[in-house]
Design goal:
Blueprint (H helix, E strand, L loop, with lengths): L3 E2 L6 E2 L20 E6 L3 E6 L29 E7 L7 E6 L3 E6 L10 E2 L9 E7 L4 E6 L3 E6 L13 E2 L9 E6 L5 E6 L3 E6 L13 E2 L10 E7 L4 E6 L3 E6 L13 E2 L9 E7 L6 E2 L1
Parallel strand pairs: 1-19, 1-22
Antiparallel strand pairs: 2-19, 3-4, 3-5, 4-8, 6-7, 6-9, 7-12, 10-11, 10-13, 11-16, 14-15, 14-17, 15-20, 18-19, 18-21
Length: 294
């Protein structure tokens, strides 16, 4: 449905979006898996994948609150989705919030038929931004909208109960916020794109592990031309990614087509956004397509 394009293209219109709605999660699953939906208010709902209606590429899809057992309140939104086969021992869920708080909880604590479980206790107006499934000994990256990045060892975050509030993972500057969390993996890189479509790859080795709770280092040099950071993730140069704009345009780019540069570089043009639009999200593509569109 989405052909690979050369770097710097405008993309095609993907999902038919409502105003202020953006595509954030793109992945593959099977009908028998559990889909765990985590919300910005720190709650979690679980749904069998086969209960989600299948739709065409440009279809708007079903509102998450209309899925069986899901009930969102007011401005509550889905912030993370985990595709899960089983609730095995020895694995954890790692939570990250907009204000830099992280929390780790044993996965089996979320194996419940109750709807709307508390996944993390949030403080004040903080919001949950993402959740990752971990093995307990990973290395964690947090990346902020202001282009800062921090790397620390997961054991520095001790396991807590399901309704605990977490600890400081990253100290943020004024008006900054965390927008991405990832886990270090051999052979992968930190890939980031700014609001004005400037993308880059940088080696994970450029981000040595530090203690939890620091301010981090420059991960993407930002200027008036680049805008703030729109998204980031850890992935391989051999995969593709979707770059998604606020106008609903989607461009599929090979990560390897984006230049690998130092962590303090501003990057190269990855997507040409329309007037009055900005890049709002990135999504790595799991399966590859062979077609190339110029």
């Amino acid at each position: 449905a989405f052909k690979k394009q050369l770097r710097g293209g405008k993309g095609v219109r993907g999902q038919n979006l409502k105003e202020e709605d953006v595509v954030k999660h793109v992945f593959t699953t099977t009908t028998h898996h559990w889909m765990l939906f985590f919300t910005t208010k720190g709650r979690v709902y679980r749904v069998k994948a086969h209960e989600i209606p299948e739709s065409g590429r440009t279809a708007r899809g079903m509102y998450a609150a209309n899925l069986p057992g899901v009930a969102l309140d007011g401005d509550e939104k889905i912030s993370a989705v985990i595709d899960l086969k089983e609730y095995g021992e020895g694995r954890f869920l790692l939570f990250a919030t907009r204000k830099g708080i992280v929390k780790k909880t044993k996965l089996p604590e979320y194996d419940s038929s109750r709807s709307g479980l508390i996944a993390i206790k949030l403080r004040g107006d903080d919001e949950l931004i993402d959740v990752r499934l971990t093995e307990g000994d990973d290395e964690v990256f947090l990346v902020s909208r202001g282009g800062q990045a921090i790397r620390f060892k997961e054991p520095l975050v001790r396991p807590m109960g399901r309704d605990a509030g977490g600890v400081i993972g990253m100290r943020l500057g004024d008006d900054d916020r965390v927008l991405a969390v990832g886990l270090a993996s051999d052979g992968e890189e930190l890939i980031s794109v700014t609001e004005q479509g400037y993308g880059k790859r940088s080696k994970l080795e450029a981000y040595p592990p530090k203690g939890r709770g620091g301010k981090g280092v420059i991960g993407h040099q930002l200027t008036e031309k680049t805008g703030l950071l729109a998204g980031a993730y850890i992935g391989s140069k051999d995969t593709d990614m979707f770059v998604i704009s606020s106008s609903g345009q989607v461009v599929r780019v090979g990560a390897g087509d984006i230049r690998r540069v130092g962590r303090s570089s501003q990057g190269v043009r990855t997507m040409r956004v329309e007037d009055d639009a900005t890049v709002v999200a990135l999504a790595p593509v799991i399966t590859q397509m062979d077609e190339v569109e110029g």
